[in-house]
Amino acid sequence: MSYSSWTSATASTADVGTYYGCDLATSDCTTTSNVHYYGATSNTVYTDVTDCAYVYFDGIEIKPWDTGIWWSHLDMSFNAQHYNEMQMKIKAAWGLWCRNEDHLNSMQKKIEREWSRYLNNEKARERRLAQNAAEDKAQRLLGLMIGKKELEVYKRTGRIFVKGENNTYIVRKGSFTQKIEDNKIVDLCVHINSQYKCPKTDNVIALKVLLENDEKHVLKLANRIGSSSLPKELPLAACM
Amino acid sequence: MGEMIILTHEGDTNIMWDPDSDKSIINAKKKFKDLLGKGYKAFRVSTKGKKQGSFVLDFPPHAAELLLIPPMVGG
Fold it and tell me: What's the complex ipTM?
């Protein structure tokens, strides 16, 4: 999608000003008189602009053919029906009427802000989806290493027991690694370099493999954060 | 087939190689060296639930599975 496709057309049937629209659609449908929009935004309830009985803009009723600013913003999928009955699937649409250039400029700025917010939300949503997919993948790999049953415990607790050459550890998802000593638990901060942006469970996998095979290396890297007395009962963790 | 499991921001990505194919080995070895050059550590592992790790510095063409871990840091 791109925001560069601003087009203008005269709303000839209504002749209430200039319509500036940007339809981020699979098809061009910027001429208002021919397009029926169905949808709702936070402050706007609308049906078809030219045929509607009531249109609300920020709580103000705008009657058909009223001169005024029409502003709409959609960030969801909806169907638009073209005059020739062709159905179009629209991802998002922005539209407005303006009385003059000043109005237009101010509204375009508003649209720019909305569009930027929309894109940021989309990017954030895509990032979240990608992160979740990566985490799922990491958990599947851990499952191959520790087995289904232990993976379930890990999913519940976010903890896994790891035996190094000399010590036992509780590796925690998204938290400090704990080294179990005779009478205390020592919190260690060591993790995959954050520039790699690995999912949290990849960090658990990395620490498991490193502690099992190169414990000294991990201890050399780790910063000792603090310690607490050993509880009577250790918390539940996978691979206990 | 050999398999390199690389921990990345997308979760693990896998590179396979055929131990009977020189070309396949060369490609896998190149990737292996690239990653070690970036600070990755390589281990022979088994994802079958058994501990079978060993730290490797040279590409082992006949290894079944290698796990490549990005550089670790203290926090």
Answer: 0.90
